[in-house]
Amino acid sequence: MILRMQSPILSIIVPVYNVKPYLRKCVESLLPYAPLPEGKGVGQDLDPAEYEIILVDDGSTDGSGELADELAQSPITSHKSQITNHKSQIIQVIHQANKGLSEARNTGIRAARGKYIQFVDSDDYLEPNVLGKLVAQMEREELDVLRFDYQNVRIVPTIRAGLYNPALMSLPSEQGSTIRTCDATGNEVNSSVANGSITNSSLEANSSASSTYQIFEPNKTPRQVDHCTDIVTGEEYLNTRMGYACYVSQFLIRRTLLICDAEPNAAMAGTTPQPEEKMMFLKGVYFEDTEWTPRMLLTAKRVNSSTTIAYNYLMRTGSITKAVSKEKQLKVVNDKLIVIESLCRTMANAKDKRWLRGMISLMALGMLSGVAQHGLNARSYVRQLRSLGAFPLHADKVSKSAKRKMKITNFCPYLYVMLMRH
Fold first, then answer.
1. Are strands 10-16 and 116-119 parallel, antiparallel or unpaired?
2. Are residues 368 and 400 in contact, defined by beta-carbon separation less than 8 angstroms?
3. How far is Cα 84 from Cα 69, in angstroms, rounded to an integer?
4. Packing angle between helix 400-411 and helix 354-373, nearest 10 degrees?
5. C-alpha distance across the termini of the chain, in Å
6. Is residue 293 classed exposed, middle or buried when 0-12, 13-18 and 19+ CB atoms within 10 A define those classes?
7. Which residues contact 390 (CB under 8 A, 6 or more apart)?
8. To 10 degrees, the CA torsion angle through 194, 197, 201, 205?
9. Helix (H) or strand (E) holding 314
10. Single pTM value for the model
């Protein structure tokens, strides 16, 4: 039995909403390491007593909440202690009415007991045996924040027993690419793409549905990220090493940056102790990572990077950021304005404003492109951007195309909207 004499060193927060086909693979990548018959195992190089997994079911309607409860009950064996325990001693499941991704993460933050916090999206998964190394670096360097690397994966079409499942197709596979395949139960099996065809003896022997994960890089241009290993302040990291991609799942974060435990004197004074919520996610908006990341980093005193590829980000058409309905696309435009407003407030209190100015400019360009695409009232949106102080647009380390668009927009934002409509 796992004894929680002390708080765990790491809390992994996983928001869950209608992701039943992906949840098992995600959770099993977080559990203590377990070798597989094929040789490569899944899971992490941490003892069960060292960490906790918090699954926040945000009102799922597809059975994800029930699956979360099931995953919390099965026995596991730690490769370190060789003692069989129950996942419920590692996994905590919280069920709540649907409030959105930000509030699910906030619920997880409030429940977390670990020294450090990591966020994992429930359709993504971790590489095996990476958390021990990352936690060790946090401890050794006494960091507030550690950023690690990630890779994109996609689901490719699978043929099994003569059956083709188009629902599993995201993009066509590429010859010679390494792929990871997991069967209907979420267990990973060995597979490869050779000469453009998927070869796997277990696929031929099993007629059940299969999901095939392929590593790929969707962007042709290199990421503007500096993986220098010097320890710097969060402000310096933001402005010199961050780049413009904001994924909160790339960070290990000291919990006290986000929330502080209640003062013990409060209970003695006869009042209910309340933790201090310092860094919560903005409710009800898309691009919450972009709004939250700079606020978090600006409070950190010791930040560093790791080149370890720890995280697998699944690019799928059903994701929030891939929303295609008109209603959601209109919300995308309006939420960008909300995030720009928040970034402007953050910038007002920042000494070095370079990154924030650049992100505001990129968000404004994206917002105006959406205004053009959906035939919205450009004058209203431009007026609001001006009132926030978003102009002139400027960003370092962006493409020549983005710089041209900013130049046109600074000359006349209505001209840019008109050009984008044609």
1. parallel
2. no
3. 19
4. 80
5. 66
6. buried
7. 340, 344, 360, 361, 364
8. 170
9. strand 303-314
10. 0.82
CA distance 302 to 310: 21
What are the residues facing 276 on neighbouring strands?
260
Residue 42, strand partner residues: 34
**pLDDT tens series, the chain, 422 aa:** 344 547 899 999 999 999 999 999 999 999 998 877 666 778 899 999 999 999 999 999 999 999 999 999 877 655 454 444 555 579 999 999 999 999 999 999 999 999 999 999 999 999 999 999 999 999 999 999 999 999 999 888 665 544 444 443 333 333 333 334 343 333 443 333 323 332 333 322 333 345 578 888 765 455 567 778 899 999 999 999 999 999 999 999 999 999 987 665 555 555 656 778 889 999 999 999 999 999 999 999 999 999 999 999 998 765 555 556 788 889 999 999 999 999 999 999 999 999 999 999 999 999 999 999 999 999 999 999 999 999 999 999 899 999 999 999 999 999 999 999 97
Q: Which two tokens stand for residue 122?
A: 């429930």
Please give the full DSSP string across 175-231, using - where no structure is assigned: TT-EEEEE-TTS-EEEEEEETTEEE-HHHHH--S--EEEEEE---SSPP--------
